[in-house]
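Homework help board

Subject: predicted structure for assignment chain

Our instructor gave us this sequence and asked us to write out the predicted structure in token form, then describe one feature. I got the tokens but I'm not sure how to describe them. Can anyone check?
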Amino acid sequence: MTRELDSYLRVDKFPHMWCPGCGNGIVLRCLLQAINELELDQDRTVIVGGIGCSSRAVGYLDFNTLHTTHGRALAYATGIKLARPELNVIVITGDGDATAIGGNHFIHAARRNIDLTVLLFNNNIYGMTGGQYSPLTPANSKATTAPHGTIEPNFDISELARSAGASYVGRSTTYHTSLLKGLVKNGIENKGFSLIEAVAACPTAYGRRNKMKGGAEMILRQKENAVNIKKALQMAPEELEGKIIIGELHKQEAPEYTAMYDNLIARVMQQAGGGSVTPLKGN
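My token output:
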């Protein structure tokens, strides 16, 4: 991290617990660069994490933070946003946390288009708990729970978010850091549910078992296999086999949930014969 970003960190919590070659630190830096460039008020920004390697980042950040139970980060974040809709609420989660036990929360938060920014660290595995395969582990990959290779197709989490109702979706990798930072900025500025999928290397739990060598080689693999969405639209499906499509994948204006909720309260109060409505917003 640069000195400029140090003010966003709880430096007394370092050294961090991530393995050598892990991409999580790169994703975290992109998040802080985005927050810094947007000049978000540190005291009016809440960062919520679930359980897993990625969500450990919450412990290193000097914001209003919550380290929640497994798969429930979006449920906590939804409550915070409804109670204090004026706050910036960012969710840090991993592929196992968000798409397995937290899968229903993910789908319905996207469907509501509630104003949350989700930064999903996709390292294709449950890294912290021993290398079990997750819903984002590519088919035929090896894991501790699939020593002979997975036989299940994996989710395309960005496509799932778009289909469920998210108004902003982007994907980048830890090689394409400028793009990742820009997508996070756009997601935070979007008034609605935003998913930013960050493809990150896990050389310890995933790369080692799948003969991908170390962290540096896995990042180079991201470079070689990534295709920008503008180019991908010109390519045939067979040419895109095994490729990582990156860029701004979806953007669409849609009604935001907390605004609709406030309007509902006002309408019901008016129909009930008047009375004042006390907004849920804090100071």
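Reply (TA_rk): Your tokens look well-formed. For the description, you could write something like this. The chain has ten helices and eight strands. That's the kind of observation they're looking for.
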